Predict the 3D structure of the following.
Amino acid sequence: MPTYAAILRAINVSGRNKITMPALRDVFVALGYEDVVTYIQSGNVVFRTRSPRAGLGTAIEASIAREFGQSVTAVLRSAKELAHVVATNPFLRRRGIDRSHLHVTFLANTPARAAVSALSVPSGSDELIVAGKDVYVYTPGGYGRTKLNNAFVERRLGVATTRNWNTVTKLCELTAG
């Protein structure tokens, strides 16, 4: 049975769009998904299902809207896809990389080639590399100071949600079983 991570866009720790992780877990269980596990209070849910992948995101989004009245985007990655994201991070090939400054922005859809080609990265030490539906971001000055944040990527490449490297590797572990 395939395992997925739903990396939800617009679920917050506090304030607007706050959903507790136990309540979010209950939504996934009600959908019939198995072995549901949430990871930290930012909308990361690992689950197993026999349901076709094509309808998973829509089902999750509709259930959250019904249950909480909130519009979120469910960005899905399979266990295999997350393993690939972790194994192929281009920044890890460099010596001396501080992993606490690595992030991955997960895109809901593969961006148009023209949008990727037209991507203009502001000067500075921050970098990003687009690899299909995943954007690797390195911010040696800190994510809170970068211009290469989620809003920057989303305006140029489409709906996106960003996770730090620790969260990405934990989601990879959780989906691997």
Notes: DSSP finds six helices and eight strands in the chain. The longest strand covers residues 3-9. The chain has a mean pLDDT of 94.
